[in-house]
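Sample entry (220 residues):
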Amino acid sequence: MRALERLVWSGADPGDVPDDDLWQTIERGLGASAEPSLAQLAFRLIRRDLDMALQLVRRLGTSHTEQAGDSAELENLFWSKYFSGVALVLAFARDQWTGPALEVNWALKCCGLEEAPARDSLDLDGEDWLASCSCAPALVEATRLLGEIDWTSGYQAWWYIRALWLYQQCLSGPSPTLRQPILDAGRLLVSPSLTSVTIIEPPSRCSPASNTIPDGAMGM
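Predicted structure, serialized as tokens:
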């Protein structure tokens, strides 16, 4: 699992990790009960093929409703939330800063929305939202998904921090609402003794939740 998460975090081209080796790592990380679409999504994320990854996110659906199930179903739910959140974070950063351009209204399609939210609905702590409104739902959804999973490694906390930090980068000034969760989650990466962090979702009117990482689970 840790090797798979490291590859999702760093990305890899075929010259570094051949396809056959990559598929073996994905199969070992996800386990035999993983849905094929999750393995495909992991592969596309590692190769940074975001256009195809976003198609898989739409296929999986981003509602990810919690439901009772056996251990295999819960494991698939975990990976679905995790990989979808990562894909949305990467796509948002590409859309806003790095390019190349993604499909028009990709974020609305991934989140099942017909129109972009009003700009003032994305403001936080009196700070204006300065980025595209049409792709904002992807970042909010990514934050929700990454905050809902039970973190078992520092990689998962890192993606949550990145989602919050990207939201902060799109505001006109510092947001106290975002600052503390970013700092708390960041401490988890360096201090295994700190085992709890408050999870928030921008904008501020979203309901808070909580998350924990077991002692000793932060090794990367």
